[in-house]
Design a protein that fits this description.
By secondary structure, the protein is an alpha+beta fold. It has one domain: Winged helix-like DNA-binding domain superfamily/Winged helix DNA-binding domain (Arc Repressor Mutant, subunit A), CATH 1.10.10.10. It is built from four helices and three strands, in the order αβααββα. A three-stranded antiparallel sheet has the order 1-3-2. The longest helix has 27 residues.
């Protein structure tokens, strides 16, 4: 199964939860998501998600000087973003529990 469709459905939550643990700049967030197990997450998808969540008011941003080049745009959660993490986490848990019940009740012939 191609995991890209599943990833699209949970990328907002993954990005918000990652930023909620610690503010970060775009590529840092990509690396943290990959380290957490989302190895195939695309940079363009994460950057697009960051822009969209920022425009929706779930993220704040600020610039930080970098020793390695131009300033970096860091993202942090707003109060609205924290509420979104709570709501999306609940949605994910309910969905995951439902899928676990479906899979437990269905024997796949080997």
């Amino acid at each position: 199964m191609d995991g890209t469709q599943l990833l699209k459905g949970v990328l907002d939550l993954a990005v918000l939860a990652t930023v909620g643990r610690d503010d970060g700049y775009g590529y840092d967030i990509v690396r943290r998501l990959r380290r957490a197990g989302l190895a195939n997450v695309g940079e363009a998808s994460v950057y697009g998600t960051l822009r969209r969540l920022y425009q929706a008011g779930s993220l704040t941003s600020y610039l930080v000087a970098s020793d390695e080049g131009p300033q970096r745009k860091y993202y942090g959660l707003t109060p609205q973003g924290r509420r979104a993490v709570e709501a999306l986490s609940g949605d994910w848990r309910r969905f995951s529990e439902t899928m676990d019940r479906i899979l437990a009740a269905t024997e796949v012939a080997k």
